[in-house]
Amino acid sequence: MKHLIQAIAVAFSMALLAGNGHAIDLTIVSWGGAYTASQQKAYHNPYMAENPGVRIINDDSGAEGLAKVRAQVESGNVTWDIVDMVAADAITACDEGLIEEIDPDSWLAPAPDGTPASEDFFTGTLTPGGTNCFIPQIVYSTTFGYRTDAFQGRQPSTIMDVFDPKTFPGKRALQKAPINNLEWALIADGVPGDEVYEVLSTPEGVDRAFAKLDTIKDHVIWWSEGAQPPQLLADGEVVIASAYNGRLFSAIAEKNQPIAMLWDWQAFDLDGWVVPKGVKDLKAVKAYMRFATDTQRLADQAKYISYGPARYSSAPLVGKHAELGIDMKPHMPTDAKNSKTVLRFDYVWWADYRAELDERFNAWLAK
Amino acid sequence: MTPGSVEVIRTADGMPLGLSLQRTLLRSRLRALLLVIPLLAFLTVTFVLPILDMLYRSVDNRIVASVLPHTTVAIQAWDSKSTELPDEPVFEALVMDIQAAYEQKTLGRVGRRLNYEKPGMSSLFRKTGRQAKRITEAPFKEQLLGVDKRWHDTSVWQLIHRESGALTGSYFLASSDLRLDDQGEIALQPEPRRIYVSLFYRTLWMSLLITVLCLILGYPVSYLLASLPARTSNLLMILVLLPFWTSLLVRTTSWIALLQTQGVLNDLLVFVGLISDDARLQMMYNKIGTIVAMTHILLPFMILPLYSVMKTIPTSYMQAARSLGASPLTAFVRVYMPNTVPGIGAGCILVFILAIGYYITPALVGGRTGTFVSNFIAVHISETLNWGLAAALGVILLALVLVLYLIYDKIVGVSNMKLG
Fold first, then answer.
1. Which of A50, A110, A220, B88 is most enclosed, with most CB atoms within 10 A?
2. Is the confidence at residue A116, as pLDDT, over 50?
3. CB-CB: which of A66, A221, A352 is closest to B385?
4. Are A170 and A133 part of one and the same domain?
């Protein structure tokens, strides 16, 4: 009995010591899976190695990021420190005053050659939609992948081919949302890429986009989670799928599936960090942020996943995949060969029309 | 003593006996209440209050008046039926409000709130917010009209006028496929935007179908379990309970593997030659997928109450019926089945109420035609952040369940139900 008490006492004091050893806990919210793993290897592990007092706790609720940040800030009980968000959500959060404003040059490290951060990040990416709360990490794209064994002869190579089930028969997988699909439908229908949002602003333009989607409606399986389309392709359930390019890369290069990329009119978007208003230790958050978004760290992340770093100075440092040893540059959405035709997602336009088009899209789906 | 009056019986201390009894009973009831107070308090704080708060959000409209306090007061003087724009004081109030809200970063909230009613309001407020700080002196009207031509549109002002109160019915209208038009009259949503009425309808009939399927499948199984000797039935019971204890996600995903077009069942049918390879059946990502997967997942909730009721029916009832000349069918229908009604009642209401609010399975296997109201509530909570609409959909769903429960009580009788 005495031994037991001693053992408990020792265990307690060790737990206390361990607790004291980690002076700071940072809760970082991200998307889980391969994406969080790439951040763990490129940012979290080196940062904790340099700062033994900091412990980083991963939370994989990225998909509910905006809703939960809003609930935390409104209830005054902020338990998250840093949240990984897509730019569109960051704009909403910033507009509603839910996240901290950021002064790039005092928060972020300059490039190795001394270029201040505000000029080193891709032009305009620090201020999406005119807001100033967002620190971009990566440029990712929603693009298409197709099964290389599905078609005899000519392989699909343009967005028109996606909307052509006669020449390229088989099911397609598309995201269960109007975003990107309406734009692609118009482009496939012959609207020039830079006029898409102008056309979509008119009721006739929306009708035209839905009419084009009607032509493939019976051939589509709709996905809602990023992991679904590569799986549908791998299972042979669909022959063409829209997906996040990093997920497709993982299916092609890491899992050796018979899938190839179709980069035509890939839709660029940004993903990055935001800080909820009212975090407990803003100083610790800023210290981490300065480290994790410097030139080398952003380039390091690209060793693990094929998303393009958001700094000009990181691009030349992108090298080989850490485990597979293949050159990552040709797999980046920003590579010149892949980005001949790019759809630039209009955040402000979608903020206006999202609610209306979501309803219309869902009503259309149910018919 | 007058005739007819009864002498009041009193206790030793002279108190009427009835009163004394009442007091004793009251004391014991209070003691019992004291014991459940912790539970009541816990339920109130963690369950009742959050639900009431969420329900209140379905009519809550304080955001407009709190972000635009001067405008919502000033605009009351304006005749919302007129085709003229409001006067200078309203414009002055709006410019002041927008400047203050832009500083405090609350302008985005009101922009998004009004954008639910009228597309384009979000960008209008955002743009005006950025440029309004330059407007410092009269005439406010002229300058604001110069910022964006949409301020010339009287329907924008009618919208602010209409939504300036602390409560709104617009979320309930939206969740019934209705809207207020520019004249403030209730009108149907344009045809391409109508979704919720048919969604409620679909949720109801699919839940009913799943309940009926569970009953048809579960009744013979329960009968078998209840009538076999204990050793065999316990073994078979494991087969019912094992899936019950298995994770919901695992079971749903296994159904995907079985039923998808490249899945086990289709492969088998093609192999046998019943269907050709290019005419594989679509049994997943549609209504069929939802119905099959949910029937399987909810089946134990039907079998267990049925089994527990059947277990208590003495076998001598059936023997008596047979010995009095009933055929096996008559004995079963007229003697055995009426005795299982409490179990049927409990099983059906459990399965139906679980089904109508089901969320994960329809989201995974429902595709575009097999999703439920709860999936849209989830979308509005976590994606579009339109919590008011989510709350209104939730209130309607709750009301529907309560109404059905009352009808059910009238037909079956809730007291006539046995959960085990």
1. A220
2. yes
3. A66
4. no
